[in-house]
Design a protein that fits this description.
- The protein is α/β, with parallel strands linked by helices and 396 residues long.
- The chain has two domains: 151 residues, VC0802-like; 206 residues, 3-Layer(aba) Sandwich (Rossmann fold), CATH 3.40.50.
- It has eleven helices and 16 strands.
- Strand 9, helix 8 and strand 10 form a beta-alpha-beta unit.
- Helix 2 packs parallel to helix 7, helix 3 runs parallel beside helix 4 and helix 5 packs across helix 6.
- The longest helix is centred in the N-terminal third of the chain and has 20 residues.
């Protein structure tokens, strides 16, 4: 079987590396959309359970070229759907078209549905299907006239870990939060602090990584209801992940955060409790300007408010300046900030050592990674008023 671990822009490489760490075969990072791998149902389930930065695990049923609706119909009909779908299966269809002759998702959905029903009629000798059984969400993606027909084995997006039931003013997806932690250069034995922690997503994802917890450990996946999968094997894989976490959860954890908003901290405490991490992550209500930490240096990771997201450019610029001052107060600490603010580095007072581009929803953002500044760098760009002397903006 061939599978696609779909991932958002910028996360394809991380998803591919995670697949290789899981021992998957035939791993190939795609130019757009994620990474492919090969394996059985057990491998698809293991990917659902363990991958931190991908959105869905899709079972590839067929790939073919189609420049007409007739070619699309015949290609979908040729798939042996009866080998996967029982008679009572629910099989809604999602469609996406990019740079192709067929560019109407609604028409693609209708044609694909008709082709599937035609095939199922022949296989099961029925004229009508009630679709009351297990869910088999069908994805039809057409890019450059290449059709990929797949079945979503995840159900809810993999970003839905199950611990976050309340959102703050500007939530970040769990998969993106995990990607930011993994790209930060932080190691689990180091200290990690989020000075703008909001409802705690970055902190919880960091804790999961440090403690070796499978991100999908406590949630359900659509494929678990499919009659054709080896259910006993899937239960064994989940049980092994729980046993492993019972052992690794006792590791030392140096993860903490604060926020100026008491309501956000209250939500963060709820999420930490629901993630099974109560007492492991230190949270406090604190103004960013008053954050001063003693002891061994570590890594600051944050998703501060930025103007495009919260419609308050002036406040976002003030936070960027405060983050620059925070790193100056903490020699030896790295600071990683995720922002859509074009002038972030100008306000911060330094150029970032590294940058990565991601999307938070539809908002293009950059992840700025500031390594510890030496004495010759720390103040050289600042001018009176806390403003740096170089032009700000995005750096590639």
């Amino acid at each position: 079987m061939k599978w696609i671990a779909s991932a958002a822009f910028g996360m394809e490489g991380m998803t591919g590396r995670d697949l290789k760490r899981l021992g998957m075969e035939g791993v190939r990072v795609m130019d757009v959309g994620g990474a492919m791998f090969e394996g059985g149902f057990e491998d698809g389930f293991r990917a659902n359970l363990w991958l931190r930065t991908c959105d869905r695990i899709l079972l590839v049923m067929s790939q073919f070229e189609a420049r007409s609706f007739e070619e699309l119909f015949q290609g979908v009909k040729a798939i042996e759907w009866e080998k996967l779908l029982p008679e009572d299966a629910r099989f809604p269809i999602r469609a996406k078209c990019v740079k192709s002759t067929l560019m109407s998702p609604s028409d693609v959905q209708k044609i694909a549905k008709r082709a599937m029903v035609e095939r199922m009629r022949s296989a099961y000798g029925r004229d009508w299907f009630d679709e009351t059984g297990a869910l088999f969400q069908i994805d039809v993606s057409i890019r450059d006239d290449l059709v990929t027909v797949s079945v979503d084995s995840s159900g809810e997006p993999l970003s839905h870990r199950g611990y976050r039931t309340w959102n703050g003013e500007a939530p970040i997806r769990e998969t993106l939060a995990a990607a930011l932690i993994l790209q930060s250069g932080w190691h689990p034995w180091q200290r990690l602090y989020d000075p703008c922690c909001g409802t705690g997503t970055l902190l919880i994802e960091a804790a999961f990584i440090a403690l070796g917890r499978a991100p999908g450990l406590t949630r359900h996946f659509a494929m678990e209801a499919w009659p054709c999968v080896p259910h006993e094997e899937l239960r064994k894989i989940r049980s092994e992940a729980k046993i492993k976490y019972a052992e690794t959860s006792k590791r030392e954890l140096h993860v903490a955060g604060s926020d100026i908003d008491p309501d956000a901290i209250e939500l963060a405490r709820r999420h930490v409790r629901q993630a099974g991490l109560e007492g492991r992550i230190e949270l406090s209500v604190r103004d960013l300007r008053n954050v001063t930490l003693d002891g061994e240096p570590g890594v600051f990771v944050c998703n501060p408010p930025y103007g495009e997201r919260l419609d308050n450019i002036r406040a976002a610029h003030a936070v960027a300046r405060q983050l620059g001052a925070l790193q100056e107060r903490h020699p030896g600490w790295s600071l990683c900030a995720f922002s859509a603010d074009m002038g972030f580095e100008r306000e911060y007072g330094r150029r970032a050592n590294r940058r990565r581009r991601y999307y938070n929803g539809r908002i293009e953002c950059e992840y700025h990674i500031f390594e510890p500044a030496g004495p010759e760098v720390k103040h050289k760009d600042r001018q009176p008023g806390g403003r740096p002397g170089h032009r700000g903006g995005r750096q590639r």
